[in-house]
Amino acid sequence: MARAETALWRDYYDKRYFALFQGLYVINRDEFDFSPLDSFRLSLWAASAARKFQHTVSREEAGRALPDLQNYYAILAQGAHHPVNSELAAKLELDWWQARRENVAPEVYGETIAKAASELYGVNADRLVQSGVLRAKAMQYRDQHGEHMTDADWAAVDDQLRAAYLALKQQVAQPRSA
User: Fold this and answer.
1) Domain ranges, residue 13
2) How many angstroms from the chain centroid is the CA of residue 49?
3) In this structure, how many other beta carbons lie within 10 angstroms of the beta carbon of residue 114?
4) What is the DSSP letter of 177?
5) CA 76 to CA 120: how far, in whole Å?
């Protein structure tokens, strides 16, 4: 997953939206086992939200991506093993996207990432903070390097995302009472 997400980030920052869509489709179909139609719809909504968000400069403008994120999370919710508040998950997702732009510390918006993941996985958000912060720090690393990212920098992002996904996997695999 980390390798796939790193590739998605590269597509996003290089504004290769069709490649972003394709990568999302493969993840949704092969990793999360959604039907071809739902994989297409998920990929379309996610890529559309990312594209709309990328061209905004304020929270108000960023809100244009929210309907696409809500559609995305509504489909994801159908595949969850527990009830998901898809509107809340979409709002949390957009909130941490924007928080990054506002130079909020990764430790802070990492908690918002954890809350969004909590909606999807049905695990208490407090248990997912480590994963959320690790993911946020990978984003901070990318942001600090900006347009000067090298292959070695992308490998470092991939390593950071691996650590984030390992922490997520460990917490999601634990019994809910833990």
Assistant:
1) 2-173
2) 11
3) 26
4) T
5) 8
Tokens 């809910």 belong to 176
Q: Which residues contact 27 (CB under 8 A, 6 or more apart)?
A: 1, 4, 8
Contact criterion met (CB below 8 Å) for 148 and 130:
no
User: At residue 47, what is the residue type?
Assistant: A
For residues 171 and 133, give the distance between their C-alpha atoms in angstroms, rounded to a whole number. 14
Say how many C-beta atoms besides its own lie within 10 A of residue 125's C-beta.
18
- The residue-averaged pLDDT of 83-103 equals 94
The answer to the question of residue 57 being in a domain is: yes
For residues 23 and 42, the answer to whether their CB atoms sit within 8 Å is no
Number of independent structural domains in the chain = 1
Distance CA 27, CA 6 (A): 12
pTM value? 0.90
Residue 169 lies in a domain: yes
> Smallest Cα–Cα separation from 39: which of 27, 57, 52, 48?
27
- Is 6 part of a structural domain of the chain? yes
In a domain, 178, yes or no: no
Q: Which amino acid is at 24?
A: L
Residue 93 contacts residue 71 (beta carbons within 8 Å): no
Compute CA 84 distance to the chain's CA centroid, rounded to the nearest angstrom. 16
pLDDT in tens, 7-34: 999 999 999 999 999 999 999 999 889 9
